[in-house]
Amino acid sequence: MIWYIWLIAAAALVVIELFTGGFGVLSFAFGCVAGAIASACDLSLNWQLLLAILVSLVFFIFVRPFAVKFLLRGKNDEVRTNTDALIGRKVRVTETIDPVAGTGYVAVDGDVWKAVTDAAEPVQAGTMVRITAQDSLVLTVTPV
What we know:
- By secondary structure, the protein is α+β, with helices and mostly antiparallel strands.
- It has two domains: 2-71, no CATH class; 82-143, CATH 2.40.50.140.
- It has helices at 2-20, 24-40, 45-71, and strands spanning 90-98, 103-108, 111-117, 128-135, 138-143.
- Strand 1 and strand 2 form a beta hairpin.
């Protein structure tokens, strides 16, 4: 009847895995299933524990990396935050950007940022531009 305990432990670990999502706890659930099978085959407690540990390690070392790689792909993509998230955004020029004088401002989500441009000619106020780089508090933009 010890195999019941192994299956209850496996079910509990599967529930925990649902909340964690890293496939680590699931490896131990497979180990518990192996322990339950060993118990159902009337193996001693030492063999049950040994099989549970071995199966858990095999799943954790060999299967888990593939599960994380293929089942969680796309979720581990780098999320740009803070000023890095500004790169590539389209914004409106609020004050003409003069490349010679180094003056000009753009509005980004209600904030005003100093802006410079790589273009040879000034970018007039009201023009839409794309942010291509950021250096401290100065954005580099190009006309859209």
